[in-house]
Amino acid sequence: MRAVRDADVGLVTLRLRFRSMPSVVCRLMLALGGVAVLWLLQAAPAGAKVVTVPTGSGSEEVNVGLLPRESEFALDGATVGSFNNPEGNPVLHKNETYAIYWDPTDHYHGDWQHLIDTFFQGLGDESGTTGTVFAVDSQYTDRSNQPASYRSIFRGAYTDTDPYPVTSNCTDPHPLEVLDRIGPENAKKEHTPVCLTDAQLRKELQTFIADHDLQKGMSSIFYLLTPPGVTVCLDEGAALGAVGHCSDYTGSTESYENSFCSYHSAFSDATLKDTTTPEANTVLYGVIPWTAGGQGDYHLLPSDQTSAYDCQDGGWYRNPANSTFEQEKAKEAKIESKKEEEEHPKNAEEKQIKAREEAKRKALEGPHEEEPNQPPEKKVGPDGSPDTGLADLIISQIGVQQQSIVTDPLLDAWHDEAGYEVAEECRNFFLEYLGGSASASEFTFAGTLYNQLYNGFKSYITDAFDLAAERLPYPGVPCMTGIDLVPQFTAPNTVNTGELVGFNGMESNITLGDDIAYSKSGTEESKYATYKWNFGDGTPEITGVAPGAPSLNSPETSPCELPWQAPCAASTFHSYQYGGKYNVTLTVTDTGGNTATVTEPITVVGPSPPPPPGAGGGSGAAGANSTPGGSSGGSGKSSSTPSVPGPIATAAAVSNSLKQVAKGGLVVRYSVNEQVAGRFEVLLEAATAHRLRISGPAATNLPAGSPASLVIGHALLVTTKGGKSSVRIKFSKSVAKRLRHAKRVKLTLRLTARNANAQNPLFTTVMSTVELHR
Q1: H/E stretch holding 202
Q2: pLDDT over threshold 70, residue 297
Q3: Residue 673's pLDDT band (cuts 50, 70, 90)
Q4: CA–CA separation, 232 vs 259, rounded Å?
Q5: How far apart are the C-alpha atoms of 265 and 408, rounded to whole Å?
Q6: Which of 10, 145, 580, 634 is the most buried (most CB within 10 A)?
Q7: Angle CA(136)–CA(548)–CA(592) in degrees, nearest 5?
Q8: Phi/psi class of residue 748: alpha, beta or left (left: φ > 0; alpha: ψ in -120 to 50)?
Q9: In the predicted model, what is the mean pLDDT of residues 499-520?
Q10: Range with top average pLDDT, 402-411, 436-445, 495-504, 547-556
Q11: In angstroms, rounded to a whole number, what is the distance separating the alpha carbons of residues 202 and 180?
């Protein structure tokens, strides 16, 4: 396929659309900052849509979820408000992916395939985590009320060496030309044009699936990838002067507007026709032609070593003052002069040098691709060209189609009235970045920004649309690279027994807080995140939905005020009967089924609870300066002797800076009232550790109701007398590295101390929390 050539976009039209943006876009602009206004005006995001295209064969048509090059603003007018699945049609609750490279002529470079396959593998490895763009899709459900879960399994990649068909082909609008070898001294060679129709791709998939006995149905996704030089058309292409719907295009505006970057669809294996029937013969597929352009590929003619950022939209945010068509003018001028250069070979080399320098300047300054996996500076790939990172643009296309297939597999589920699907609603949005540089390399003409990390593999994938942002005002950000599920509340100060105190879970940051479910009759109804409170004193847990709170004091189960569902429990009240230190635990489950917990201590002043029947006296399970469950003597034996006060200790972290803690460790100040020996442990909730890919031993002997946690750091404590001091708890290199990538982390500090009484050793455990942020 010919390298990408961009077309003009009418800025007047974009400005008119901008004036009618919905509130959801305004909230996004506020989240991105003032620069976003200029960005949106100059580079309005395009959106792929569900479209019906005549094939040119009689009256037949093909239905596809298409990602066109033509830039339009997806988040426009009332279309976002119509984003739904009114019939509750199927989504995918799990998926197994196959990558099929139809490449009988060996033009799909091995380094490209390796990057793409590694992405698919990482996609499967990270399944179930919340920090990826695919986690946003878990809010979308069907009439089964099961979410479109992020559960992907990579079933491997295959090279299909079946010959390309030679009859009934489409006509490539602009065939690719290549060089025999690297270097301007080599003569050009016309590449045999290959143009394949969607009907031919379906036939090949049918044959390939049957030959290898692969599983079809609503849990398999087949990605068919074609190499450079192979164009894909939904119709007959440019035959007889027609303007085809192809992955390639000519310089005309109409041809450009009809061209596309990738698409997905579904057909019946029995008939090869479009299908909306979820059955064993259904084939779900995504077509990913080579639309990555050719920058850095020295095997191509200079006219084809051009950018493909309009199929990735790289660099828009960091280069808001540049427009697409400025770069286009230089490219088209070079194409126009090509014939003249061939007729006057003495001047050709000089003109080519000047054209390359001008193209280099434009590529480095203007919007450009982002290739996080490009070769290091001044390095080349196995083929002698610094073009390995071009595969990152193909990965961007796979990322778009993966989201769309999972949430709209049969093209009749989640999209808006204009046909825009979940990823395409947010095309051109790539925030937040995890790393890399926006500056373009002079060799690849691409930056290295990445916003996704899959088992260490970096990729640059457009944000996904968060429907909950339309339904709730907070957090209200419609385009996300992952989801946040951060339950939090602030514990009251020390209170007395019998006093009513409040716990406000509405402090929590929950991306998937309000979505759509379906009743038994199939009608839409609201679906909210749920809250569960455990007060640590043995009283019944309080459970309900959010947002909202009970209209009467907790633990009443009175209905919530409309429009919230009953019972509500985002905020709640509670009173304690006995004194002591209690751990209050909040567990939040969002609408995608993701769960997270947070625990905060509260100190209650008052009489200790009575001992259990038949037990001796003692400080009690909730005695001061102990966690629920109490402290115990070192012998572990039951005692009927009067209780002896254990050691008294306090401990708290000094810094709340993630950067400082990751670099130098966690500094803890502590005080003890006597000589003690003990151990500090830094605990991280297991769910958070999994999201950050931090490993460690499981924490044991946690208070009842506490979330599962891992020990990620520790230090010994030995004192010769009472007093105050500090200790620095350092983390391993791997833990420190993972912490640096986080935006905010809540840690629990546990100090277990034993006094120096050899005859009657007593222990005490104190716990505190610290929230680290950038």
Answers
A1: helix 198-212
A2: yes
A3: confident
A4: 10
A5: 9
A6: 580
A7: 20
A8: beta
A9: 92
A10: 402-411
A11: 32
**Can you give the pLDDT at residue 636?**
36
Q: What is the residue whose two structure tokens read 């390639």? A: 248
Q: What is the 3-state secondary structure (H, E, C) of 258-291?
A: HCEEEEEEEEECCCCCECCCCCCCEEEEEEECCC
Scan for tokens 């847990």, then name that residue. Answer: 541
What percentage of residues in the chain have a pLDDT greater than 70?
77
Distances (CA, A) of 316 to 205, 416, 617: 36, 25, 71
Residue 179 lies inside a defined structural domain of this protein: yes
Q: What residues pair up with 311 in beta bridges, in sequence order? A: none
Q: What is the DSSP string of 30-49?
A: HHH-THHHHHHHHSPPP--E
**Amino acid letter, residue 756:** A
pLDDT of 191 reads 57
146-154 average pLDDT score? 91
Higher pLDDT, 359 or 148: 148
Q: How far apart are CA 127 and CA 153, in angstroms?
A: 8
Least confident of 24-38, 274-288, 460-474, 638-652: 24-38
Structural domain range at position 572 = 484-607
Write the burial class of residue 412 (CB in 10 Å: 0-12 exposed, 13-18 middle, 19+ buried). middle
Alpha helix (H) ranges present in 578-702?
A: 658-664, 686-692
Under 8 Å between Cβ of 102 and 110? no
C-beta separation of 489 from 588 below 8 A: no
Other C-beta atoms closer than 10 Å to the C-beta of 39 total: 22
Element holding 398 (H helix, E strand):
helix 391-407
Structural domain includes residue 424: yes
Whether the CB-CB separation of 432 and 132 falls below 8 Å is answered with: no
Tens-digit pLDDT profile for residues 357-390 = 766 666 667 778 999 999 988 788 898 999 999 9
Beta bridge partners of 268: 282
In a shared domain, residues 228 and 308: yes
Residue 36 · residue 61 · CB < 8 Å = no
E-assigned strand segments in 177-281 = 177-179, 188-190, 194-197, 220-225, 230-233, 260-268
| CATH value at residue 651 | 2.60.40.10
Q: Which amino acid belongs to residue 462?
A: T
Is residue 586 located within the same domain as residue 520? yes
Q: Based on the domain organization, do 592 and 566 belong to the same domain?
A: yes
514 touches 529 (CB < 8 A) = yes
Residues 6+ apart with CB under 8 A from 550: 544, 556, 557, 558, 560, 567, 568, 569, 572
CA distances in angstroms from 273 to 62, 107, 179, 245, 265, listed in the order given: 8, 30, 39, 19, 10
Amino acid at position 285, single letter: Y
- And the tokens for 463? 């944000």
User: Taking a C-beta distance cutoff of 8 angstroms, is the pair 58, 235 a contact?
Assistant: no
Number of domains the chain contains: 3
Longest Cα–Cα distance in the chain: 108
137-141, 224-228, 557-561: segment of lowest average pLDDT: 557-561
> What is the average pLDDT value for the chain, to the nearest integer?
80
Give the pLDDT score at 131: 87
Instruction: For residues 600-622, give the mean pLDDT.
Output: 66
Residue with tokens 């420190």: 736
Under 8 Å between Cβ of 577 and 525 = no
Task: Report d(CA 595, CA 529) in Å as an integer.
Answer: 10
Residue type for 498, please? G
Residue 181 lies in a domain: yes
